[in-house]
Amino acid sequence: MNAEAGRRVQVDLGGRAYEVHIGTGLIDRAGELLAPHLPRRRTVVVTDRHVADHHGERLAAALEAGGIAVDMIVLPPGEQTKSFAGLEDLIARLLALKLDRGDRIVAFGGGVVGDLAGFAAAIYKRGVDFIQVPTTLLAQVDSSVGGKTAIDTAAGKNLVGAFHQPCFVLADLDVLATLPGRELRAGYGEVLKYGLLGDAAFFGWLEANGGAVLAGEAGALAHAVARCVEMKAQIVAEDERESGRRALLNLGHTFAHALESETGFGEALLHGEAVAVGCALAFRFSAELGVCPPD
Ligand SMILES: NC(=O)c1ccc[n+]([C@@H]2O[C@H](COP(=O)([O-])OP(=O)(O)OC[C@H]3O[C@@H](n4cnc5c(N)ncnc54)[C@H](O)[C@@H]3O)[C@@H](O)[C@H]2O)c1
Ligand SMILES: [Zn+2]
User: Fold this and answer.
1) Mean pLDDT of 43-53
2) For residue 157, what pLDDT is reported?
3) Stretch 6-23: mean pLDDT, rounded?
4) What integer pLDDT is reported at residue 5 of this predicted model?
5) Residues enclosing ligand 1, CB less than 6 A?
6) Residues 34/63, Cβ–Cβ less than 8 Å
7) For position 1, what pLDDT does the model report?
């Protein structure tokens, strides 16, 4: 891959089609890369404290260098933020900043920020466009693409939300360098899922190169993220609202959700970790039922 140019994957959704730009050094070029998607030359960046501490200033500086005025909303990190209370707080802050219907929100963080800011964008003033700048491996390979947005409720995870596609996704692999190792490994649970979803060659590649991906080797990361995004883009283009084929993306997730529910959806077991265990359990269960040969 040409590191400068990066790789671009198109999500073909007719009038709501968009591009996922994957590569290195992209945050520093955010002004130039996001400008075409920001008609009013101002934006509100929604992020969490960890991401803001590591990369917030760099993103703001890059946007400002591109002539884009930036307000930054920094949320508390963690799944609890993806709640009705978190949503109400975020909407109040967007209103206080007088975000207009023609403005666009930038979701800068992992799946928590992406799901919450995406849902806020779906309902703020009856809907504004938003851009995903995912900063975890899980968000880059999975949650930033496909338009599922949601918050959790007392009755369970992701029970209130909307399908709201981003208008652009910018995945800078460099930001993964500051991601805690455990979070990177959890994201790999979703990567492995894509390997099992009907791309044996990619699964084989992961068996040989998984270590390099987890070591943060740029070329390996780029290939893994791009391949997952290509597969997700294709599935989402065929079945945006999960009436059929998109359910494939839930491989391992029935077991995963049961395990997460039992462990309280928190630090005890991260989502990607639950997916990795869930894929192994789904395989064993299928082998027991005789629908998947054990070898
Ligand atoms: N919408 C979808 O299609 C979809 C798909 C899968 C998962 N999800 C949702 O995604 C959420 C999980 O997302 P996640 O795993 O990205 O978790 P997360 O957003 O909580 O991020 C994990 C941790 O890493 C920190 N972090 C993020 N980027 C960092 C960076 N570059 N450097 C240092 N620290 C960083 C965060 O502050 C947080 O503490 C769940 O709520 C899940 O339901 C949504
Ligand atoms: Zn998942």
Assistant:
1) 98
2) 87
3) 96
4) 66
5) 48, 50-51, 54, 77, 79, 82, 109-113, 115, 135-136, 138-139, 142-143, 146, 148, 157-158, 175, 178-179, 183, 271
6) yes
7) 46
Adjacent-strand bridge partners of 162: 149
Q: What are phi and psi of 130, to 5 degrees?
A: -145, 160
* Residue range of the domain that includes 54: 7-178
Length of the chain: 295
**pLDDT tens readout for residues 212-240:** 999 999 999 999 999 999 999 999 999 99
Query: 186 and 174, same structural domain?
Result: no
pLDDT tens profile 180-198: 999 999 999 999 999 998 8
Q: Which residue has the tokens 């390997």?
A: 195
pLDDT in the model for residue 145? 97
Q: What Rg value do the Cα atoms of the chain yield, rounded? A: 18
How many structural domains comprise the chain?
A: 2
In this structure, the answer to whether residues 173 and 200 fall within a common structural domain is no
Distance of CA 166 to the CA centre of its chain: 11
Catalytic positions, written as ranges: 126, 148, 190, 232, 242, 246, 250, 253, 257, 271
Exposed (0-12), middle (13-18) or buried (19+): which is 130, by Cβ within 10 Å? buried
- Ligand 2 centroid from CA 188, angstroms: 11
Residue pair 108/133 in contact by the 8 Å Cβ criterion: yes
CB 90 within 8 A of CB 119: no
Sheet holding 42-48, edge to edge: 7-11, 18-23, 168-172, 130-134, 104-109, 42-48, 69-75
**pLDDT at 3 exceeding the cut of 70:** no
What is the average pLDDT score of the chain?
A: 95
User: Which ligand is closest to the CA of 82, given by its number?
Assistant: 1
Supply the CATH number for residue 17's domain. Answer: 3.40.50.1970
